[in-house]
């Protein structure tokens, strides 16, 4: 697998916020989101090293944490994710997988963190073929449905404007048996003041719908900086 970085930090988003974790960040992604906060792990970047499953697990064990977050990029690009998750589970390590919900593999995990991309993710002012590729790949509700049927899950949407809420409702209408308290709305923000400003109307909406507001606590803790 192409591994960009393995490091320790706290989970900053979602149901397991504040849990001390080891992050495994893979390289490569099938999307090109306009707001991507890890461009160094995207498909057009060569950063990282190729590691075997055994090498990855060995590094995780040395770091000593009992929770691993496998993120990217897009982890589901790699068939090696299947033996990696099984081997980590055999070591009694809990696993979160962060995915866009556009690809699916028969992995093992304790929490499937699914982030379907809205139209606010579509890039602009770049090659039209890249834009088309992103648009064709960004939403696969049939795959998301399978993931929520098969795993403990959270569905996390990035929200920029109030108009995004209508798009979220339309997307959720394509799915069945979604628990409202597993739907998380996260403000599109790279600084604390913007996040708090958007939180005012996002929180109000979440309370009415039974959704969860999802702050990006890593921005509160560390700023918009790369952790390693």
Q: What is the N-to-C succession of helices and strands?
A: EEEHEHEEHHEHEHEH
Strand content: 15-25%
Largest sheet: 9 strands, mixed
Strand order of the largest sheet: 3-1-2-4-5-6-7-8-9
Helix content: 25-40%
How many E-type strands? 9
Mean pLDDT: 93
* Strand-pairing-aware structural class: alpha/beta
Span between N and C termini?
19 Å
Q: Which stretches are low in confidence, meaning pLDDT under 50 for 5 or more residues running?
A: none
Shape: globular
Q: How many alpha or pi helices?
A: 7
Radius of gyration: 17 Å
What's the layout of helices and strands?
Blueprint: E1 2-10, E2 20-26, E3 49-50, H1 53-63, E4 67-71, H2 81-90, E5 94-99, E6 111-114, H3 128-137, H4 141-150, E7 153-159, H5 163-172, E8 183-187, H6 192-209, E9 212-213, H7 217-222
Helix pairs in contact: 1-2
Q: What does this 3D model show about the protein?
A:
With 228 residues, this protein is an alpha/beta fold. The protein is built from 7 helices and 9 strands; from the N terminus they run βββαβαββααβαβαβα. It has a 9-stranded mixed beta sheet. Strand 4, helix 2 and strand 5 form a beta-alpha-beta unit. Helix 1 runs parallel beside helix 2. It is globular and about 45 Å long. The protein starts with a strand and ends in a 6-residue tail after the last helix. The mean pLDDT is 93.
Pick out its properties:
228 residues; alpha/beta; nine-stranded mixed β-sheet; 7 helices; 9 strands
Q: What is the compact description of this entry?
A:
The model has no long low-confidence stretch (mean pLDDT 93).
